[in-house]
Write a structure and sequence with these properties.
144 residues, 60s Ribosomal Protein L30, Chain: A, 9 strands, binds zinc ion
C-alpha cells in the first residue's frame, strides 16, 4: 500500500496562455519562471493542433499521435514535480473535435495553443523527484 505524503497548499496562479505557442513548453516555462516545483495544473481552451502520447505498456515506449486539426480542450489536468533538478510538467488532456468526439492522452510537444485559460496551484511539501522506474519503464516519482 502506498502511504501518501501530506502537502500544504500555497499560491495559486491564473493566466491566459499565448496564442500560437506550444502548450507544454509554455506551461514548463511558467513553472521555471515562477520556480514552481510542486503543483497541480488545470486548463480549458482550444488548440490549433495536438500532440498526444499513448504509453505501450508491453514495449515500454510512447506512441505519438499528431492530430492536425482545431480541437477544444475539454479537460487538461496534470502536475508539476522535479526531473533532473528542474520543474517538470506532466499533463493529460481530453480534446474534442467539431463532431463532439474526443481524443485523449499524455500531452506532448507539438500542441499549439489557440486560446487557453490555465490555473496552477502550488504546494509546499517534500520534493517529488522523478527517477527511472524499472517496473514500468517510466520516469516516476521517487518519494523519500
Ligand atoms: Zn502521462
Amino acid at each position: 500500500m502506498a502511504i501518501p505524503e501530506e502537502i500544504k497548499r500555497n499560491k495559486t496562479y491564473l493566466t491566459k496562455l499565448t496564442h500560437g505557442s506550444d502548450l507544454l513548453e509554455e506551461l514548463t516555462g511558467i513553472c521555471k519562471e515562477r520556480n514552481i516545483r510542486l503543483g497541480r495544473i488545470e486548463a480549458i481552451g482550444a488548440v490549433q493542433k495536438a500532440g498526444i502520447g499513448f504509453y505501450d505498456q508491453k514495449k515500454q515506449e510512447y506512441q505519438s499521435i499528431i492530430i492536425d486539426e482545431p480541437l477544444e480542450i475539454t479537460s487538461l489536468t496534470g502536475n508539476v514535480s522535479i526531473k533532473d533538478g528542474a520543474p517538470f510538467v506532466h499533463v493529460h488532456a481530453t480534446l474534442a473535435g467539431p463532431n463532439g468526439r474526443a481524443y485523449g492522452g499524455h500531452l506532448t510537444q507539438g500542441t499549439i495553443i489557440f486560446a487557453c485559460e490555465c490555473m496552477i496551484e502550488t504546494f509546499d511539501g517534500p520534493a517529488f523527484e522523478r527517477a527511472f522506474d524499472r517496473e514500468t519503464g517510466l520516469s516516476l516519482w521517487k518519494i523519500y
